[in-house]
Write the C-alpha cells for this entry.
Amino acid sequence: MDRRAGVLLSVTSLPGKYGIGSFSKSAYDFVDWLAEAGQSYWQILPLGPTSYGESGDSPYQAYSAFAGNPYLISLEALVEEGVLTQAECDAADFGDREERVDFDKLHESRFALLHLAYERSDISHNPAYQRFVQENGWWLSDYALFMAVKSFFGGAPYQEWPQDIRMHWGFALDYYRRELYFDVEFQQYMQFKFFEQWKKLRAYANSRHIRIVGDMPIYVSPDSADVWAHSELFQMDADGRPEAIAGCPPDAFSATGQIWKNPLYRWEAHRHSGFSWWMSRIWQSFEMYDVVRIDHFRGFDEYYSIPNGSDSALNGHWEKGPGMELFRAMQQNLGPREVIAEDLGLMTETVRQLVRESGFPNMKVLQFAFDVGDKGAANDYLPHNYDRNCVVYTGTHDNETIAGWFVGLSQAEKKLVRDYLCVPDASDREMPVILIAAAMRSCAQTCIIPVQDYLGLGNDCRMNQPSTVGENWRWRLRPGQLTQEAGALARELTMRYGRMNWANEKKA
C-alpha cells in the first residue's frame, strides 16, 4: 500500500465564531488546506456529546457511544437555513478568548440558540427528519429520552434519578416520553442536524480525497444512555452503580496511574449476545468515519479493574478481555475494516500478540522513543525499530506539543535526540521540523502530525494533560493562524518522503 500522511486536529479546535470549532466554513477550509498540502487523512477526536461538569467536557466521557455532539452543529448553516439570525448568534456570549473554549458559557448559550432553531423548524413535516428518527430509533430513542430526563432533573447523573426511571422500567419510560415529548423531540432534532451536517462535511472531504480517521473510545461514560439502557452489559450493582471502574497503573503519563471512572464491561454478557452491542457500535463508527482508531486497544487483551470508590489506581488489578474473539466477530459480521490500534501504555507480549493477530496497524509516538531506560536501542518507538504496518505520530492529543516536549528535556536528553538524528548543532527552534521529518521518513505506512507541531506551538496549546481536569480540551486555532506557510511545510515534507496524495493535483 502507498505511504500516506495526515494531520491530527479536533473539530472543536477549528477557528471561527461562536465559541467552538464546528461543521462551519472553517472545517471546509481546513479540508482544502489538507488537500493542498498533499495529505490523505484528517484525524479527529471523538464526536460524541460531551458530559458537562466534572468530566471537563472530555470527548472520552460522552453521554452516548452513538450520538453526536450538538456543540459541533454549525450555527452559520442554521442562519442560512433561516431558523436563526446572525444577530441572534452574534449577541450570544461565548466568552472573549477565541483561542480557548469556554465550556461554561458555551453550555448556556449554544443550547439556547439550538432550541430557538428547533422551535422555528417545521420538523413534523420534514420527511428527512422523520426518516432519520425511524432509521436511528435503535439508539436514538433511548438517548433522546435520557437527555430529556437528565434536563428535567437539572442535569443530575442518572444514578440520582428516582428509582423507576433510573432502573429503566417500562412504565416509567412511557410516562416520561409522554410528559417530556417536546424535550425528547428537541434532542432528536439536534441529532438530525448533527448527522446531516457531518455527512455533508465528510462527503466534501472525501470528494477532495481526504479520508477521516475517527476515534472510538473503548469505554463509555458512567452517566450515559448506554449504561442506563443496557446496564446488563456493564459491571453494575443492583442500584445501577459501577462495581468496578476503568483506569490504568502508573505509566508514562502518570506516576500513580489514572482513574477514569468508566464502568467496565461484563464480557460474558457480550459473548452471550454474539457481541451484538459492539457490532452495532463498530458499524455506527464506520458509518461516520473512513478509518477508526480504537482507543486503549490493549484493554481488549487485559483491562485494569479498580474497585469503585478507590482513591488510587494502585488498588487495581488486571483481568482478561475478549481478545481476538471480538475482532473475529467483527470480521464475520462487518467484513474487512480499516482500524488503527491505539496500543500505547504498558506493553506485554500478549498485547503484542493481539496486535499481530488482528493485523491492525498500531501506533508509534516519537516522543516515547527517547525514554530509553533499560531498553536501549530496543525501544519500540525508535524509528529504526518500526515495521511497516504502523502509524507514527510526533505526539497525540495526550502528549505535549513536540516543541514543548523538546524544550522541556534536560541537556543530556536533548543531546541524545540530536545524536540519534545526526543533528548535533541544531537549535531548539529547529528541532520540531527535524522531528517531524524523522517521523515522515520512517518506514511506517502512515504518518500523522498534530497541527500544533507544524505550527511550532508550545505547551500552552496542548490539548490534554491526562490525570488533570479543568483546562483540557479547550485549545483552538485562532483565525488566520493556520497559514499557507504551514501548509507549504507540510507539503514539502510529505512530498520529500514519498507520502503525497496526488489525487488533488491538477492534470497537466
User: Anything to note?
Assistant: The two ends are 25 Å apart (CA to CA). DSSP finds 19 helices and twelve strands in the chain. The mean pLDDT is 93. Residues 388 and 444 are 5 Å apart (CA to CA).
